[in-house]
Design brief:
The structure holds two protein chains of two kinds. By secondary structure, chain A is of the alpha+beta class. Chain A contains three helices and five strands. In chain A, about 45% of the residues lie in helices and about 20% in strands. Classes of the chains: A alpha+beta, B alpha/beta. The complex binds pyridoxal-5'-phosphate.
């Protein structure tokens, strides 16, 4: 199974501000978005992240899975993650 | 058990520093949860989604305000409600209770006004395509018939002659007031003398009584100066008629066309900063008339057929989010349950869309599409929206004009319309359509029936 890796050189603030040292690019994340990025940073797997969400938020598995994949697709688009 | 948190779709948005945000600052952070004190949630529970909502209070405020502004500047003012702008019975009746006459452009609108109890002499009959029966009926009721072309003039004259009636008529006049396009398809032209020719024919016809002059220079007219020119031209003709034929006209009708506070697609600045106020339109029109000096007893009544500007902000459309999508371009899209078939004005307005529940503060450029299986079904190409979920509500503001008349059933049917009354009571004023309603008009030839009767 592939694992999603957040790239190095990335600073994530508590308020959802994401800064890429190498290029100077900045991004903002909403609360759930930063939660996911933080979990990725602590090397949590997709399954662990989905489980965390269904346990702590009013959301069903299908929805969080779809939204998670979409966020990851965007992170990839901005070259913020790699999949190995 | 632990209380779970409200879920919000995770989002990430790239920041472009140094560039001006072309979507303007977001005013979306605080949700709109009610209309005139009635909760949007309860409206949806009672009447479904999508749902058109009209505020009785707002209509009355708008009409009273416009009347006061004109009346402060001119002694004789009469509004006539433009039926085509919104001809729901409840809406027309509020305007009539506020003292407005009816301005109609078709036989059925005419009959609708009569059914509501509007007196014949308080109906202005405009439009290029009045039927013979409709004209005769209007003549008998002493309605004001605004003649659009010479064929109509001859027809009215003939009908009046054979039925031994003296018809009360005005002519519609088109002119160049510096705004384009010129609506020169309607009425008689001012500059080339066609209107003066029509006036001559009418005055010499014993079966016709010329009571007024009419123009409607366009819709969503952003120049008050255009109205000053139009008013000046009509007033000048009125005075010339008095001088040459000793005929005093009862009124000058300046039509409709004031812009509402909706922003047009392609307009960079919000409408509030571009569009003249009612005061500015009123100054322009009344100055235009006063520039032609009348004796006070000859001062004609000023009629206004204002539509859009009086009803747009009294109408709301509540819609629900069906799903979120990501387009191949990377752009975010939201699909809602209201399509362009009920929100025609999406083709020219950048609609004011509000959130109805608490959502995140991070916004992303988003396109909003309706539920129709058609590419044209776009409510807005670009709006900054925070993350919203399926079932969340959006409120589209300023939709009172033209949508509830130009709508059509296509794939989905027309939804309920409710009016929030001044006392806060909610009244259903038009029922949502259903299959029975649709089939009422259809006939299936016997040999095509699959189910034997
Ligand atoms: C003759 C006439 N009067 C009044 C109106 C109402 O115009 P508006 O809604 O722009 O005020 C129209 C609209 O096209 C019209 O054609």
């Amino acid at each position: 199974m592939s694992k999603i890796h957040l790239i190095e050189n990335l600073a994530v603030s508590d308020s959802g501000f994401l800064f890429l040292h190498t290029t100077g690019e900045t991004f903002t994340l909403n609360k759930t978005g930063s939660e996911i990025v933080r979990m990725l940073r602590s090397r949590k797997s997709k399954e662990e992240i989905l489980k965390f969400f269904t346990e702590n938020y009013i959301v069903d598995t299908n929805t969080i899975e779809k939204d998670f994949e979409e966020l990851v697709a965007q992170l990839k688009f901005y070259s913020l993650v790699t999949e190995k | 058990m632990k209380k779970k948190l409200r879920y919000e779709r995770p989002t990430i948005t790239k920041q472009y520093s140094g560039l001006m945000n072309k979507f303007g600052s977001s005013s979306l952070s605080r949700p709109t949860v009610d209309i005139d004190g009635v909760s949007i949630k309860s409206l949806c529970e009672g009447y479904g989604s999508p749902l058109f909502v009209i505020s009785e209070k707002k209509i009355r405020q708008n009409q009273k305000n416009a009347f006061r502004i004109f009346k402060n500047r001119y002694p004789k003012v009469q509004f006539a409600w433009s039926y085509k702008t919104n001809y729901l019975d409840a809406v027309c009746s509020v305007f009539h209770q506020e003292g407005s006459w009816a301005e109609v452009v078709s036989d059925f609108e005419y009959d609708k006004a009569r059914k509501l109890g509007v007196k014949g002499e308080h109906i202005i009959f405009n439009g290029p395509a009045k039927s013979e029966a409709g004209l005769l009926n209007a003549m008998k009721n002493k309605s004001k018939i605004h003649i659009d072309h010479f064929d109509e003039l001859f027809l009215i004259s003939e009908l009046a002659e054979t039925n031994n009636i003296r018809a009360e008529v005005a002519i519609r006049i088109n002119m160049d007031v510096g705004i384009y396009p010129i609506w020169d398809r309607f009425g008689f032209n001012f500059e080339n003398g066609e209107s003066w020719q029509a006036i001559n024919r009418i005055i010499q016809n014993k079966n016709l009584k010329l009571v007024g002059l009419h123009t409607h220079i366009g819709t969503y007219v952003m120049s008050a100066e255009a109205y000053r020119i139009a008013a000046y031209n009509l007033a000048g003709l009125c005075k010339r008629i008095k001088n040459e034929f000793n005929v005093s006209l009862e009124y000058l009708d300046l039509g409709g066309g004031f812009a509402s506070h909706n922003t047009l697609i392609g307009q960079y600045l919000p409408a509030e900063q571009l569009v003249p106020s009612v005061e500015q339109y009123a100054d322009a029109i009344t100055n235009g008339i006063f520039d032609v000096s009348f004796k006070s007893e000859d001062l004609p009544t000023l009629i206004l057929e204002t539509g859009r500007a009086l009803i747009d902000d009294a109408g709301f459309l509540i819609t629900s989010v069906i799903t979120n999508k990501r387009l191949t371009s990377g752009k975010r899209a939201v699909i809602i349950d209201a399509g362009v078939n009920i929100l025609f004005t999406s083709f020219w307005y950048k609609h004011n869309i509000q959130l109805c529940q608490n959502s995140g503060v991070h916004t992303e450029d988003t396109a909003i599409y309706g539920p129709l299986c058609m590419n044209i079904d776009c409510i807005t190409e670009s709006i900054n929206l925070p993350s919203i979920n399926r079932g969340d509500k959006l409120l589209i503001k300023y939709v009172g004009a033209y949508n509830m008349t130009q709508w059509m059933q296509f794939i989905s049917m027309r939804p309920n319309v409710v009016m929030i009354m001044e006392n806060g009571k909610v009244e259903l004023i038009r029922k949502a359509e259903n299959l029975d309603y649709l089939l009422e008009q259809e006939l299936l030839p016997k040999k095509l029936k699959l189910i034997p009767v």
